[in-house]
Design a protein that fits this description.
By secondary structure, the protein is of the alpha/beta class. Helices cover about 50% and strands about 10% of the residues. The chain has 2 domains: about 1-15 and about 80-160, SRP54, nucleotide-binding domain (Four Helix Bundle (Hemerythrin (Met), subunit A)); about 165-360, Rossmann fold, CATH 3.40.50.300. It has 16 helices and 10 strands. The strands form 2 sheets. Strands 5-4-6-3-7-8-9-10 form an 8-stranded mixed beta sheet, with helices on both faces. A two-stranded antiparallel ribbon has the order 1-2. The longest helix is centred in the first third of the chain and has 17 residues, at about 5-20. It is elongated and about 65 Å long.
């Protein structure tokens, strides 16, 4: 999953390692026995050798006396930073070290269908965390790059994240969840998968088919309900979607069902009639959550649709299907940052058990090969 993006992130790390200036500790060059110390001119030619063994205070004093020219340049390491880095063997990353690798990273992210503003945010965070950086606990340039990438990716991926199971557990029952999105992205199948996910955790559910617009919609969701032994609430084609989901809520209240899973007709955000249906569902049913469903492999299209649906009828989170077939990872990286609403689940296969709770930290570790 997302193998193409993993390779590109690894390439960025290698590029920075090749370009970065790595200061290594100087070897001891102390004179033997009582041999006199070199004269002042020799010391001036090789100041580093004399300073390796000096205290941090001495290094700071030396840097302060000769580093005033750098004080006005916030983007470059100061003389003090350089002197101290040399004395301790730390890593100093400069602007020229990052210029080409960051350009290559930006192109790689965009090629992976990462949305432009998301790519820019990642680059900004990486630059801020690495430029002039000197970290004692980081032993190699590669580790410094990996730390910066980790923070930059988590910053955009984890936007709006909440504990889905905790929200289900703490909410008044029944919890009503409405699913929306365009046709053909696995919305109805995701409802069935989430019903199974809930059952595995001890929560009962009922399905309500609010997709009264599409021919064959009742038969499709009924097949899932039969396989999972779930109750399905449905009306004839052409019925009122809000009434169907409302009936589902009433059934759940009467039968102590924990969660109502309401399907809706696939729609474009530009379809005024269908968007009006969502508004009516929201008004009549007042769902606890509205989840947007799209395909991870749709990349930039999925990101754009998520934003458009969130603008037209506010969502609470997203499910990305076919994540197991997605090499680029652009949608998974971008959706939360663009909408301000979290990705909650990834569909990772054809089975009812193939629904994975989205864990931003785990995804970042996987992308960076930290597993």
């Amino acid at each position: 999953m997302f193998d193409g993006l993993k390779d590109k992130l690894s390439g960025f790390r290698e590029d920075v390692e090749e370009n970065a200036e790595v200061e290594e500790p100087a070897e001891s060059d102390e004179p033997e026995g009582d041999e006199p110390v070199a004269d002042e001119s020799a010391a001036a030619e090789a100041p580093e050798a004399d300073h390796v063994a000096e205290s941090d205070a001495d290094v700071a004093e030396t840097a302060a006396s000769g580093g005033s020219d750098d004080a006005d340049d916030d983007n470059e390491p100061s003389t003090f930073q350089r002197a101290k880095a040399f004395a301790t063997g730390r890593i100093i990353i400069e602007e020229e070290d990052l210029e080409e690798p960051l350009w290559d990273l930006e192109m790689a992210l965009l090629e992976s269908d990462v949305e432009m503003s998301v790519a820019e945010r990642i680059l900004e965070t990486v630059r801020e965390k690495m430029l002039g950086e000197s970290r004692k606990q980081v032993e190699t340039t590669g580790e410094l790059v990996e730390s910066a990438l980790h923070d930059a990716l988590l910053d955009v991926i984890a936007v709006g994240q909440f504990d889905f199971e905790e929200r289900i557990a703490e909410a008044d029952k029944p919890v009503t969840i409405v699913f929306t999105g365009v046709n053909g992205v696995g919305k109805t199948t995701s409802i069935a998968k989430l019903s199974e996910w809930l059952a595995d955790r001890g929560y009962s559910s009922v399905m309500a088919n609010g997709d009264t617009y599409r021919a064959g919609a009742n038969e499709q969701i009924q097949e899932h309900a039969d396989r999972l032994d779930r109750e399905l609430i449905s009306h004839d084609q052409g019925g009122d979607p809000a009434a169907v989901i409302y009936d589902g809520v009433e059934y759940a209240e009467a039968n102590d069902i924990d969660v109502v899973l309401g399907d809706t007709a696939g729609r474009l955000h530009t379809s005024d009639d269908l968007m009006a249906q969502l508004e009516k569902i929201d008004r009549v049913v007042d769902p606890d959550m509205t989840l947007f469903v799209d395909e991870a492999v749709a990349g930039q299209d999925a990101v754009n649709r998520a934003k458009e649906f969130n603008d037209a009828a506010e969502i609470d989170g997203a499910i990305l299907t076919k994540a197991d077939a997605d090499s680029s990872g652009g949608a998974a990286i971008s959706v939360a940052y663009v909408t301000g609403k979290p990705i909650l689940f990834l569909g990772t296969g054809q089975g009812y058990d193939d629904l994975t709770l989205f864990e931003p930290e785990e995804l970042v570790e996987s992308l960076l090969g930290e597993e």
